[in-house]
Design a protein that fits this description.
Length: about 425
Amino acid sequence: TQKMIDQAKAVMRKNDRGLYTVPTQGLYPFQWNWDSALSALGFAHFDEPRAWTEIETLFAHQWEDGMLPHIIFHQPDDGYFPGPDVWATGRAVPTTGITQPPVAGFAVRRIFDRARDKALAVEKARALLPQIHAWHQWFFANRDPQGTGLVAIIHPWESGRDNSVDWDAAFERVPTEGVEPFTRRDTSHANPEHRPTDEQYKRYIWLVQKFRSLGWDNSKLHDASPFQIVDPGFNAILMRSCADLADLAESLGETQIADQSRAMADKGIAAMETLWSDAHGQYLCFDRSIGALVDSPSIGGILAAFAPIPQARARAISERIKVLAESCTYLVPSHDPTAPEFDALRYWRGPIWLIVNYMISDGLEFAGQTAVADRINRDCLRLIEQGGFAEYYGPIGAEPCGGDTFTWTAAMVIEILS
Ligand code: DGY
């Protein structure tokens, strides 16, 4: 146990660039939004000031409108595509122009609650509180123009689940005409069989060019995007962070932020009911551009357990995971192994991601579904034993996939073992 913790710390130290960490060397040489927030949880166990720094650096690059960008390009690096020139967001320190799952509210509350240095925690949390709150408000202002209580992503990279089966049908409506020629760099760092396809990359870039042509004006992007998906996993992270921020704000005596955060969380959790599918026993994505649920049994609808959803839903998700366990060796696969689109080793079309496992397990544990929560945590450690600190793993053979010595995988191991 201690040996595994020490190995995990070594991975985090290796990827530490002082004020931020890279997810892994080579493949991802900058600061990624949700990677950083989740990695801070790992740092908090052995270096609290460093954990706070990770999140502070992230928010130092928040946009004036409240958006927290998905990548911060702290230093030039030719090994990544698409780099700052493609995004052209015009920031002094370049960033992308889209966002990522808003897990920072959850992370800050957790680090605050367990802090050994309470004075430092109060100081840091007090400063971050309005910044995180502004990001949450940004979501509802810019990604929920009709006031449904749920927000849409406008690019698959925002979900973090880049090539999920969930986006396949919607991606048919994203054109590829006019995409400037490019050379991928990810496939020279990782096995191309484990990565998204060229066809998907063209569509990723078409969307970037489209938003760039609108000057990255967030008041225009949602309505102009042919890709508008309400992802239950993404929304669950937002609702959980809003609820956690409400609690944190209360303990810091910030009642206005507390009340506003609570209201956003309550409304969103109520609205999540519209995404529930009895047929699948889980939540589904909703394709806002055509007004229909997406018939795709992916992990997005299971990750929803991270939010304080109704007990009956958490119980049903637990049952759903037990069914998934019948068709794989390790939990939780990012897509149903019995579905025709399942691809055991290809990024988000089958493989297991420890950060997602951690969030599902955390939510289920809170809901009293401890047996399934424990099984998920045990599987995480079995995967590390089999495959080291990989980016993701095959759910049947435990194959290590994508990048290696991966920061947030290491952070999750420290979380689980500490
Ligand atoms: C990538 O480059 O693969 C990232 O997932 C985009 O954020």
